[in-house]
Amino acid sequence: MSIEKILQTLEWGSAPESIKMAEEFVKNFGSEQGIFINGKWLYPVGCERFNTTNPANGEVLATIIQSGQKEVDSAVMAAREAQPKWAALSGHERAKYLYAIARNIQKHSRLLAVLETLDNGKPIRESRDIDVPLMIRHFYHHAGWAQIMDETHPNHEPIGVCGSIIPWNFPLLMLSWKIAPALAAGNTIILKPAEYTSLSALAFAEICRSVGLPHGVLNIITGDGRTGARIVEHEGIDKVAFTGSTGVGRIIRNAIAGTGKGLTLELGGKSPYIVFEDADIDSAVEGLVNAIWFNQGQVCCAGSRLLVQENIAEKFHDKLRLRMSKLRLGNPMDKAIDMGAIVDESQLAMITKMCKEAEAEGLEMWQADNPLPQEGLFFPPTLFSNVAPSSTIAQEEVFGPVLVSLTFRSPSEAIALANNTRYGLAGSVWSQDIDTALEVARSIKAGTIWVNCTNQFDANSGFGGYRESGFGREGGIEGLWAYMRNKPPTSEKSLSGYMIHQSQSQIQTSPSGGTAGASLDQQGSIVNRTTKFYIGGKQCRPDGNYSLSVIGPNGFVGEVGRGNRKDIRNAVEAASKSINSKNWCGKSAHSRAQVLFYIGENLQQREDEIAKRISAQTGQSMDDAISEVKDSIAEWFRWASWSDKHDGRVHETTINGLVLAVNEPLGVVGLVCPASPSLFSFTRLLAPLISMGNSVVAIPSETAPLAALEMYQIFETSDLPAGVVNIVTGLHEELLSTIAEHDAIDAIWADINDMTLVHQGSCGNMKQTWKATSLSSDKELLRRACNVKNIWLPHGI
Ligand code: ADP
User: Fold this and answer.
1) 519: pLDDT confidence band, cut at 50, 70 and 90?
2) Residues 127-148, buried b or exposed e (16+ Cβ, 10 A)?
3) Which ligand 1 atom is the nearest neighbour of the CA of 231?
4) How far apart are CA 416 and CA 419, in angstroms?
5) How far is the CA of 511 from the centre of ligand 1 (A)?
6) Which of 82, 135, 142, 744 fits 184 for a cystine, CB–CB 3.0-4.6 Å?
7) Which residue has a Cα nearest atom 27 of ligand 1?
8) pLDDT at 493 (0 to 100)
9) What is the rounded distance in angstroms from the CA atom of residue 357 to the CA atom of residue 341?
């Protein structure tokens, strides 16, 4: 008898996990659950409550508190009081607590896995073998960071009190991603689990209480989005860490715009799963099962878009359908179940609706005939093949067990399709050819790429997105950065440490609104000093023909263009073209360094002339102005030197293989410079950005823009390719929103006091925004000039 026949005739028995422990936990804590504030369980009377249910059978497990303002206030107050004391402990002391938490999670891992599955509906196989072990690894790993942080990060301090909001798909794992690094770095925290899945977080709070974690260091309060919003908006919160939908991420970005609160967002995705003709097909099919049907597809990085090479598509789909038909759906407590329940009715309704709409669009839906349980919230594994890249279901996140399949012919088409999304969380590449696999991995715009594998996670590898998948990383050193900041700079030259000259320059709008460029210069001769913009390697006139007069302490110095939306759009187009053609980011770091050194050298040739320009605008003495130019020359040398030294890393993880953390340019960056020191600040911010391969749309000092404009002749003579630096002058308040809202800009560095407009405008494509004054060290500037992409390369023979 063939193995296939044997497999066909074998019946599955049931292998249920006992739920006794979890029932006892709920009983001990009462079916009316409390909240954990300042080391104590609280059961506030009069609070609204809601049920948490088992989605596999609809049974009510317990009632949960809908925390209101009072509860949020108490939690924040407890965290604030505890924070200085927690931060003052030695790293070793904090490490001992984190280690004790890890050990105790280990001891209670069965309880946690069962509670997680009861409340969420995910198969016990996953919560037991994936979620909880990853959680334990996370706490051990961060106990290690706490221990060695004095050595690894001597000039850093914690951010303060963190407000963390997590989703329901991986309640324990998400909780660990937020809590472990925050505590390791000396922050305290208020965490809110998602309303569908609060139980495991409450069990975790009890573990922390039992290990004697100092009161107030960790506070867990329950509730829905209203509670989340109160935490986010609370003025006692210094940093918000959110994982969830892009929609709510936007609301949060908006809610804290201009407040100065730190923010990391891990949002949605529509990750490509790319299979080349030379892939190990059976492994790729198995990987795909893991990519899209793990946790019923309710995974932000789910490989929900299959891109398969055309000539193997039919064979691949046949194998896939066969495998889909073997998936077993049922009681998630059964250890032999592949897919459990969908978390909630509303989620099931959304998945169903999206599939119906796709069918109505004319797409063909295929579902295996897998028997579905009689009760509970289940949705079968679903495949839409031959889908057009633009169809809604190929673009929108379903967050359910629904795969769409598209075909491609060449690697470049695969890359184009993979990047045809507004998200950028993850991607998988399947090919036995190392050139293809690595080239494609480098070309996909996403934070994590798995080569010949999928859904690999480890506490020592950063996870997080590009584009609308958010910003910031979770895990390892990359994640830890979000929970600390540089102590105020001491000796290192930085923008915030630079002496600010009391600039006496002003800007005046030209009454004639146009060609008022002819005027008397300081020597009394008639000159036309309307300095043009620099866009795409060319000098251009302002679209609106308006100009601004730069007035120094001795009167008129020159005219500059008054940029408008159209000018910014042209500059962004030129910068995008530079990125797409890879005329700069595609060069080796050594080549970029050569150009940057050359810029410094050429600036030196014009030291006196440019110093005069600075002095005429600002009233600085010539000595001061010369020293500003000299400092700027040194900056060009500095960032030329860094070009090939901001290395990535090879992470130590739990796989047999390499995990390469690669620093990639952000793309197009909008740069808004401060008024003064006009040349130095322009250089200090622009040079690291281009040193790392970004292309920039720069708005120089509003009142003293002429020195920066002098630079374009230097760029031209220093072999800087067209479009890498684009300069538009004008009134910052007129240009800020256009820059912030432009969807082709990937990040903004702005040196302005009020970042509200920038933050609000950034919500469209969720671009990252940095206040330039907070970028106080070289290393920080380098970090903020790059995205880290983690490429997983398992191997073995
Ligand atoms: P999902 O789509 O994964 O359910 P959501 O983004 O809706 O994700 O929810 C993720 C988390 O965000 C949950 O804990 C939820 O309660 C919380 N949340 C929802 N709305 C808001 C809001 N306006 N502000 C803060 N948190 C919110």
Assistant:
1) very low
2) bbebbbbbbbbbbbbbbbbbbe
3) 25
4) 5
5) 51
6) 142
7) 225
8) 47
9) 22
Ligand 1 binding pocket (C-beta < 6 A) is 165-168, 192, 194-195, 224-225, 228-229, 232, 244-245, 248, 251-252
Active site residue 266: yes
How far apart are alpha carbons 288 and 293 in whole angstroms? 8
**Which atom of ligand 1 lies at the shortest distance from residue 247's CA?**
6
pLDDT of 1 higher than 70: no
- Reduced to 3 states, what is the DSSP secondary structure of residue 793? strand
C-beta separation of 489 from 449 below 8 A: no
Cis, peptide link before residue 677, omega less than 30° from 0 = yes
Give, using CA atoms, the residue closest to atom 19 of ligand 1. Answer: 225
**Cα separation, 539 vs 727, whole angstroms:** 9
State how far the Cα of 713 lies from the Cα of 594, in Å rounded to an integer. Answer: 17
Contact 461, 653 (CB under 8 A): yes
Band (pLDDT 50/70/90 cuts) for residue 496 is very low
**Residue whose CA is closest, atom 21 of ligand 1?**
225
**197-213 burial, b if ≥16 CB within 10 A, otherwise e?**
bbbbbbbbbbbbeebeb
Atom of ligand 1 nearest to the CA of 195: 16
Q: Where is pLDDT greater, at 569 or 499?
A: 569
Task: Please tell me the distance between residue 225's alpha carbon and the centre of ligand 1 in angstroms.
Answer: 5
Residue of 17, 71, 162, 300 marked catalytic: 300
Residue 533 half-sphere exposure toward CB, CA atoms < 13 A = 32
| Residue closest by Cα to atom 24 of ligand 1 | 229
Which atom of ligand 1 is nearest to 165's Cα? 14
Tokens for 635, please give them.
């900056």
* Ligand 1, atom 3, residue with closest C-alpha: 244
Specify the amino acid at residue 99. Y
Among 165, 199, 299, which is best to mutate for testing ligand 1, by the most ligand atoms less than 8 A from CB?
Answer: 165
Q: Which atom of ligand 1 is nearest to the CA of 245?
A: 6
The active-site residue, picked from 17, 71, 266, 628, is 266
pLDDT digits (tens, 9 = 90+) for 770-783: 998 778 899 999 99
Q: What is the pLDDT of residues 306-345, one digit of tens each?
A: 999 999 999 999 999 999 999 999 999 999 999 999 999 9
What residue type is assigned to position 495 of the chain?
L
Catalytic, 540? Answer no
Would you place residue 5 in the very low, low, confident or very high pLDDT band (cuts 50, 70, 90)? Answer: confident
Cβ atoms of 402 and 357 closer than 8 Å: no
Find the angle CA(768)-CA(253)-CA(183) to the nearest 5 degrees: 85
- Calculate the CA 282 to chain-centre distance: 33
Distances (CA, A) of 449 to 307, 446, 462, 660, 765: 15, 7, 11, 10, 21
Q: Which token pair is 608?
A: 């006196």
Distance 786 CA to ligand 1 centre (A): 28
**Per-residue pLDDT tens for 112-168?**
999 999 999 999 999 999 999 999 999 999 999 999 999 999 989 999 999 999 999
> What is the helix (H) or strand (E) element at residue 358, kind and residue range?
helix 345-360
Choosing from 67, 190, 195, 248 the residue with most ligand 1 atoms within 8 A of its CB, the one to mutate for a pocket test is: 248
- CA–CA gap between residue 68 and residue 227 (Å, rounded): 6
Ligand 1 atom closest to the Cα of residue 347 is 4
- Cα(377) to centroid of ligand 1, in Å? 21
What is the model's pLDDT at position 680? 96
Q: 132: helix, coil or strand?
A: helix
| Cα 167 to middle of ligand 1, angstroms | 7
Nearest to 493 by CA among 632, 669, 640, 603: 632
Structure token digits, residue 73: 């206030």
Give the confidence band of 508 by pLDDT, cuts at 50, 70, 90.
confident
Say how far apart CA 368 and CA 319 lie, in whole Å.
13
Encoded tokens for 468: 């609308």
Residue nearest ligand 1's atom 26 by CA:
228
